[in-house]
Specification:
There is one protein chain. This protein is mainly α. It has helices spanning 2-28, 30-38, 42-50, 52-55, 58-74. It is built from five helices and no strands. The longest helix has 27 residues, at 2-28.
């Protein structure tokens, strides 16, 4: 049962990543966007928080952060996210 919540949180985090990545391409340029893709979202996450106020994406970054923490929390309990 918890596996479903993990997938939902992970998918939500991926959607947030794509939204911030689009904003990163628009504002930071192609170099920042490509770095965001190459680093699997770590740079996009950092860039998003650094520029959250300027780009008006604080609520999006907060949602992304919560989803990443929730999804990571499911993995602290072995067997909680296994699909049977």
């Amino acid at each position: 049962m918890l596996g479903i919540f993990d997938y939902v949180a992970g998918f939500g985090a991926f959607v947030c990543f794509i939204m911030v990545l689009i904003k990163q391409f628009e504002s930071g340029g192609v170099a920042h966007g490509v770095i965001g893709i190459v680093t699997c979202g770590i740079w996009t996450f950092i860039w998003g928080w650094i520029n959250a106020g300027e780009e008006k994406i604080k609520s999006l970054m907060l949602i992304w952060t919560v989803l990443v923490v929730v999804s990571g929390g499911f993995h602290l309990f072995p067997g909680s996210v296994s699909i049977r």
